[in-house]
Every structure is written in C-alpha cells, then in structure tokens.
Amino acid sequence: MAVKNLLQAINEALDQKMADDKRVVVFGEDSGYEGGVFRVTAGLQKKYGEDRCFDTPIAEAAIAGSAIGMAINGLIPVAEIQFDGFVFPGITEIITHMARYRNRSRGRYNLPVVVRFPVGGGVRALEHHSESLESLLGQIPGLKVVMPSTPYDAKGLLISSIEDPDPVIFMEPKRIYRAGKQEVPEEMYRIPIGKAKVVKEGKDVTVVAWGPFIREVQKAMKLLEEKGEKVDVELIDLRTINPIDEETIVNSVKKTGRFVVVQEAVKTYGPGAELISLVNEKAFLHLEAQPTRVTGFDITVPLPRGEHFHFVQPERIAAEILKVAKY
To answer: Which residues have a Cβ under 8 Å from the Cβ of 49 and sit 6 or more positions away?
Structure first.
C-alpha cells in the first residue's frame, strides 16, 4: 500500500474511475490544465485528454446544469466547484433540478452526478471560501452528502459516489487536504455511503463528528487524558451527512448513555440538532445526561484575522465532553 494524503487519495480515485469507465468526465473552474486550485485533479487532463477533463467558465450554474445534461445523456459527470461559497450561484440547478430528477421523471431518469468542492475554513481564506454547507445541502431530498476525514475514506467514498446512480455532494475538507498521510490501497475499493465508522470504542460518552473535526475531537480526548480525566469516549465518524447511519449512533448511545456532537457549521438548524433529535427519539430512555452540541457560532465566517475565534477549539470540545460525562 502507498502512503497518501487526502488530496492524493481523491486524485487516485478519480484517475482509477476514469480509467475504469469511459463515461466518467471531470470538469470545473481550472480543473483541467491547472489541475484545480488545490491541484486535486492534477495530471488527469494530460492522461485522459481535454474531452474528459476540462476547464469551464466561471459560471457555477452552468457547471451544475451541464452536469445534469451530461448525466441524462449517458455520461457520469464529476463536476468541481472551486470553493464552497461558490456553490450558491449553482444552487438552483442542484436543488430544483439535479436533486428532483428521479422524482420528476417518476423513475425514468436518474442522474449519476458527483459535485465536488473544498469545504470549511482553517486556511485563512477570503469571504465565500470557508463555508460549511452540510446544514444547507444535507436537508435536500434526492441528494446524498458525503464528507471524508481520512485519505482511506476519501478514496473509498469517492469511488462509491461516482458509482452511485443518484446525485452525490462530495465535500472535501480543505484544511486537511495535506494535513496527514495514511496507507491507502492501490486497487479500487468502496466504502458504503450511509455507513458511519466507529473510530474508537468507549463506554462513557458517544461523540460524533465528521470531516476535519475528527482530528479536533481526538486532540480534545488527549487533553482530557493529560489532565488525568478518565473519560472513555466512543468516537464515531459520521462520514455521510445524508443519509445518516442511525443504527450505529443509536446503538452507541444506548451503550454509553451520553451524547455529544461536534460540527464546524453554525449552530442553528445544523446536523447537530438533527442528530440530537434522533438520539432523543430512539434512545431517550437510555440517556444519563442531556445530549449536547458543540458548534460554530451563528455568524458569517470571519475574515482571516478573526477566523480562529469562530472555530471549535479542542479545549472547548474537551470541556463539553467532561461536563456531559460527569453529569
């Protein structure tokens, strides 16, 4: 197995699916010649030609709309939006058409589309470059929403996304593109969409996170250990915002009796609220403390100088875990 970072794992997944299926096409702003702003698609145009990996105008509605047309006509488009905040101009095509096409056609048409984009903050970027959109896109019927936290998961989840018969929003946490490396199998493999991963088993409190915040929770767990606090955390990587792996979460809470969810997105109407509702509905009689969410603030992501004030820090996560554990 080769050791790869998250960016390299995504590139390899795209490369292998393009080699495996000639219907797969990759496109977006600077996705062709330059290989994307983060170089995620580097080398693909040179290897597969401009017909299968190409640049587009700065027109996100056109990118999403073209992907719909391609899918209807037998291709498997993998469309890249350059930054998370640039999704908004394409949101009409994604929500009113892409997500609804199977229902609109009464099952006659399905759209095997993947929309990829870097997501979240942590790189001291400008406005519209640091959005957490799982709260917005996770509630749309007809869309699957995926966010990997490791190179291994990124490759397996992206291959599954490309092979899925329906639209998948594939969010790539930009702050961990190159943050660490992991052994990744060189052959193709798949991780099922909608299946969470138990990163660490524990008996005292269930903590759910996804994307880059798996690392932040692990830092919080280390802080607790260094302070001599004996809290046995069961850490779950959600992996998929929609559909949610209800079974894994509910079974964990029934075991621990306590629940904390950590998200980068703003607090109000976020996935954290949905997960707490799930726990209340299906594991209420097992709870020993109030379910708690640790989230970003209900503000627009600050510009670079103040960005760190918005993010959930390990110290804050540790404090909330301890509070729930000792309730």
So the answer is: none
Give the number of other CB atoms < 10 A from CB of residue 17.
Answer: 21
* Mean pLDDT (whole number) for 218-230: 95
> Angle 21-26-32 (CA atoms, 0-180°, nearest 5)?
130
**Residue 204 near residue 258, CB atoms below 8 Å:** yes
Domains of the chain: 2-184 (3.40.50.970), 197-325 (3.40.50.920)
R_g (Cα) of the chain, nearest Å: 20
Reported confidence tier of residue 310, pLDDT bands at 50, 70, 90? confident
**Is it the case that residue 135 has pLDDT exceeding 90?**
no
Mean pLDDT, rounded, of the chain: 94
Helices (H), the chain: 6-20, 44-48, 60-72, 91-92, 101-104, 134-137, 151-163, 213-226, 246-256, 271-283, 307-310, 314-325
94: which residues sit within 8 A by CB, 6+ positions away? 64, 87, 115, 137, 140, 143, 167, 169
In three-state secondary structure terms, 27 is: strand
What is the per-residue pLDDT for 127?
76
Catalytic annotation, pick one of 129, 286, 308, 310 = 129
Can 128 be counted among the known catalytic residues? Answer: no
Q: pLDDT value at position 18?
A: 98
